[in-house]
Amino acid sequence: MLSSTWGSPSGIVQLPKEVAPFAVNISQEQLDRTQTLLKLSPIPGECYENSLPDGSRRLGLRREWLGEAKRVWENEFDWRLVESQINSFPNFTAPVPINDRGEQINIQFLGIFSQNPNAVSVVFLHGWPGSILEFLPLFNLLREKYPDSSQLPFHLIAPSLPGFGFSDQFPTDRNYGMEDVAFAVDSLMVNTLGLKNYVVQGGDIGSRIARVLGNRYEHCTAVLVNYSPVPPPEDYDFTTLSEKDKKGLERGDWFRNDGSAYAMMAASRPGTLGLALSANPVALLAWIGEKYLDWTDPLSFAQDTILPSGAQYSRKLMNEIIASVALYWHTGKIHTSFYSYREAFALNGQAPPSSNAQFPVMAPKKVGMMWFPYEVIPTPKAWIEKYSNLVFWREEEIGGHFAQLEQPEVIARGLEDFVKILQEE
User: Fold this and answer.
1) Residues 166, 213: one domain?
2) Which terminal residue of the chain has fewer beta carbons within 10 Å of its beta carbon, N or C?
3) Could you give the dihedral angle defined by the CA atoms of residues 58, 63, 64 and 67, in that order, rounded to the nearest 10 degrees?
4) pLDDT confidence of 9, banded at 50, 70, 90?
5) Does 213 reside within a domain?
6) Domain membership flag for residue 5
7) Does a structural domain hold residue 327?
């Protein structure tokens, strides 16, 4: 296992006593129980919808892929390897306030601290169905580039969001949402870790939390996102759209019309959904696996393995999917991870209570945007500019919704270039 001492706090960053070291260690009993459930879980027979003759996933996940993923999880996947990858970085837990009334929950986070006195603090926020696993390839790249942590230009903080992974869920007494998550993230960075000025980076719901932080919290000085769906400005001239933007809007139309039924379920009936998906690991594999297959750029993962039918798939992506699903399964957190969707979709004829457009991030705060062509809702630059003091814009050629996982080298370059802009001004 790689050393977990790289980036450990000392000297420049000293953690308060309530911050405790943490290591992922799922019990062998729990792993054995999962293996039993996998063996006993059936894969239903072929039907038109799960085995479309054209080879597509137009009506949902394909049976053949799920059967192969179940076989790999059951016979070849090594959860202990995932644990060692997480534990190769400094991990911590800390009680963090979730409101100004003193309520707290325990938040688990990766905390990689530079010994460079000029290091910039960056907090990375995952989305759904993401986790801290998304950031491991990026952090590995930075560890290879800066083996001496005194040269590392960043403090890197990646929390498991409340209700995800190894962090506690929110209390059950009332509805909690993105503004509560933002309060907790800011509390972690400023009050717990003493990182008074920080940059936030995120995609998916992490980008929405980033906007809340940039809009409301003084110590969040800049926002770098790779997902930012916002409406067009009034009287926007659609004839000015580039070919890339036209394709991006077509992709967004596909997502809204054909790919967002899961989100309406999570928004309107999360209780039922959480109970159903918590009962069986193969059901969870199907639910989450579909999202990774549909939302990642096919160019990000080589289609290098052949199914019995002759269809190709990416074994690397399958391994990443199984790791993600296993984390949700072993932590028992799928049912507590849906709360953000009630704020993202209009229900009962009402407008969503929270959206990117409701949290503009304007001067003196600074915003960077990394645009990926296979994002689920790629948004034109002119639309984002309406709600952002946009000082950094980069259009990438390859990449989708899980950009940190798909293109870690690109995210690393973008982060370094964005921070240079912040330091020059």
Assistant:
1) yes
2) C
3) 140
4) confident
5) yes
6) no
7) yes
- Residue 102 has a pLDDT of 87
Active site residue 341: yes
Residue bearing tokens 């309520």: 103
Matching residue, tokens 């304007």: 362
3-state SS string for 359-417:
CCECCCCEEEEEECCECCCCCCHHHHHCCECEEEEEECCCCECCHHHHCHHHHHHHHHH
pLDDT attached to residue 3 = 60
What six digits make up the tokens of 189? 């960075």
Say which residues have a Cβ less than 8 Å from residue 9's Cβ, sequence separation at least 6.
15, 90, 111, 113
Domain identity same for 106 and 70: no
- Clarify whether residues 51 and 184 are in a common domain: no
Tell me the CATH number at 139.
3.40.50.1820
If one counts the domains in the chain, the total is 2
- What is the DSSP secondary-structure string of 237-301? -GGG--HHHHHHHHHHHHHHHHS-HHHHHHHH-HHHHHHHHTT-HHHHHHHHHHHHHHHS-TTTS
Please give the pLDDT value at position 1: 43
Residues 378 and 291 in one domain: no
Judge whether residue 348 has pLDDT over 80: no
C-alpha 339/C-alpha 267 separation (Å) is: 7
Say yes or no: 143 and 207 in one domain: yes
Provide, rounded to the nearest whole percent, the portion of the chain with pLDDT above 70: 96
Cα distance from N-terminal residue to C-terminal residue, the chain: 41
Nearest to 399 by CA among 413, 378, 383, 419: 378
Cα distances (Å, whole numbers) of residue 96 to 105, 122, 181, 207: 6, 18, 11, 21
401 catalytic per annotation: yes
Q: Answer yes or no: do 75 and 88 share one domain.
A: no
The residues, ordered by sequence, that sit 6+ positions from 333 with a Cβ below 8 Å of its Cβ are 163, 164, 165, 169
Q: Kindly name the residue from 227, 339, 341, 387 that is annotated as catalytic.
A: 341
Asked if residue 113 and residue 101 are part of one domain, the reply reads yes
Q: Which of 343, 375, 396 is the last residue of a domain?
A: 343
Q: What's residue 77's pLDDT?
A: 98
Backbone torsion region of residue 152, taken as left when φ is above 0, otherwise alpha when ψ lies between -120 and 50, otherwise beta:
beta
Band (pLDDT 50/70/90 cuts) for residue 158 is very high
Question: Averaged over 222-236, what is the pLDDT?
Answer: 95
Q: Is the pTM of this model over 0.90?
A: yes
Catalytic residue among 204, 245, 294, 297: 204
